[in-house]
Amino acid sequence: MKSVTSRDNPFYKELKSLAASSQARRKAGRTLLDGVHLCQSWLELRGAPNHCVVSEGALHNPEVADIVARCESLHAHVTALPDALFGALSQVEHGVNLLFLVETPAPVQPAAMSVSAVLLDGVQDPGNVGSILRSAAAAGITQVFCSAGTAFCWSPKVLRAAMGAHFVLEIFEHVDLGALIDASRISVLAMSGYAEQKLWQVDLRGPVAWLLGHEGQGVADDLMGRATHQVVIPHAGRVESLNVAAAGAICFFEQLRQRQA
Amino acid sequence: MKSVTSRDNPFYKELKSLAASSQARRKAGRTLLDGVHLCQSWLELRGAPNHCVVSEGALHNPEVADIVARCESLHAHVTALPDALFGALSQVEHGVNLLFLVETPAPVQPAAMSVSAVLLDGVQDPGNVGSILRSAAAAGITQVFCSAGTAFCWSPKVLRAAMGAHFVLEIFEHVDLGALIDASRISVLAMSGYAEQKLWQVDLRGPVAWLLGHEGQGVADDLMGRATHQVVIPHAGRVESLNVAAAGAICFFEQLRQRQA
User: Where would one find the signal peptide in this protein (chains A, B) (predicted)?
Assistant: First the structure.
């Protein structure tokens, strides 16, 4: 285990930049995982991080000590920081002072979709994107394609909301969703409050792509036109809209229900 | 329309206190609705507010002007504030400077449940609570009962996430959920990742109460024991948990699907 005690240390500066800026994460192709749950998930699903960073105070926490020991047994770098320096790296209030620095997974994007997938067209809210990733992974979906206007998936808020779903998914960002749909043969279901075909009338037992749009404006017109189905989640109340992450969860698990029936 | 220009005005001070503190909202039995969508929904579903508060700059916005005119035609008080004073009242960045001051609806709690309902046991995150209210209302559920440990439903974040669902629901807070369950004859379905009965194997065509628990710990043991069913949402992925709001949405709409089938 190394120790860094100066704010001018280049590695500390790199961490600070990655902690504060999605742009820095994008540019470096690296991201930070914050807290015990995400770090444990990474270890279980992806193995060693590039670097494990821990505050001196957190070393007394048995869960943290266990994670540090596992990192060392996998020959990952471990660096301890004074608690005061660590504070600037974490957005989690009252969190455990533990971070993994990892290479952002960069899977090669397939030219066409052949398995069930989620397409996010301009979903803005990081909490919504994270919740969608979490629900998709829990329903057994493995691929997520995001348009340029969708929230950056490897930001702290999206990572926190997805609770490790990132590590079992293939996530593709800055995707030309129109071209992807055109190149694919599977059904593309655009969700819309104005559609007529009801979700539970669609046969979902084969692979489908779920196209979910912006919180306010929904799916963009040009993508809506390219979808093979426009589908509505039926409502029964006087409130006629759903949160996009709630809508996604309903869709993914209706598919799972039909497949398990 | 009145005009308030001093920070020392008692009405302005009341607004500031309600804007900043859930405790003040609870104590006063009043709440603030922030922005065009919530105010429009209130007008449509509940009628006149006690008071419509608007910044001078926002009066030029046609949607705001329309809402102000409707308030005046309903003989509601309307007060204009300089933009600088309004700023301290709103948590919405780049929002439209419009607020309704309303009496928090305080429906009389029934001794027992007889229609489908949602029971929230210590759900902490305001965004989750708001999303659950929104999904429940959209699925046609009309009653929500919250334990003392659940996030305050009339806070800005919950109101924003629920998008007006509050105004079609009966919301009961600080409820002794155990006593309520004991007094009720409808099925109570406690959602749990560890249960064996699968959601889609339960007959949901009659009235049921959905019991949803804390984001980390789930439903408390004593309530779990009182439920008539312990139910799991089946999973297919290597990620084995769902966000509580996503879980709620899946449950409420599985019930709607069965009812419409």
Answer: none
Nearest to B237 among A168, A235, A238 (CB): A168
Q: Tokens 């998008």 correspond to what residue?
A: B163
67-126 in chain A: CB under 8 A from chain B: none
Residues B195-251 pLDDT 10s: 999 999 999 999 999 999 999 999 999 999 999 999 999 999 877 789 999 999 999
Per DSSP bridges, beta strands B30-34 and A229-232 are unpaired
Counted across chains A and B, CB pairs separated by less than 8 A come out at 123
Same domain, B22 and B143: no
Facing residue for A235 by CB, picked from B45, B138, B239: B138
Residue B243 at interface with chain A, using a CB cutoff of 8 Å: yes
Identify the bridge partners of residue B103 per DSSP, sorted by sequence position.
B30
Classify residue A110: in a domain, yes or no.
no
Chain B partners within 8 Å of A248 (Cβ): 246
Last residue of a domain, one of B79, B103, B127: B103
- Asked if B241 and A138 count as a contact pair (C-beta separation under 8 A), the reply is yes
- Is A137's CB within 8 Å of B238's CB? yes
Q: Are residues A39 and A126 in the same domain?
A: no
CATH of the domain at A182: 3.40.1280.10
Cross-chain residue pair B237–A137, CB shorter than 8 Å: yes
ipTM: 0.95
Mark yes or no for CB contact B234/A241 under 8 Å.
Answer: no
User: Do B243 and A135 lie within an 8 Å CB cutoff?
Assistant: yes
Q: Please state, in angstroms and rounded to a whole number, the distance separating the CA atoms of residues B153 and A84.
A: 36
Residues B172 and B216 in one domain: yes
Phi, psi values for residue A102, rounded to 5°: -135, 155
Q: Is A138 on the interface with B (CB under 8 A)?
A: yes
Contact A253 B250 (CB under 8 A): yes
What number is the average pLDDT over the span A35-48? 96
Closest CA to B173 of B133, B127, B208, B215: B133
Enclosing domain of residue B42? 2-103
What's the pLDDT band for A90 if we cut at 50, 70, 90?
A: confident
Domain presence at residue A111: no
A240, B138: Cβ pair inside 8 Å? yes
pLDDT at A240 over 80: no
Contact at CB, B137 and A238, closer than 8 angstroms: yes
Give yes or no for B260 touching A (CB within 8 A): yes
Distance CA B149, CA B171 (A): 15
Is A165's CB within 8 Å of B260's CB?
no
Residue A138, pLDDT above cutoff 80: yes
Mean pLDDT of A176-204: 96
Q: Is the pLDDT of residue B66 over 90?
A: yes
Number of domains in chain B: 2
Most confident of the ranges A94-108, B89-103, B244-258: B244-258
A69 and A143 housed in the same domain: no
Share of chain A above pLDDT 90, in %: 93
Q: pLDDT value at position A238?
A: 79
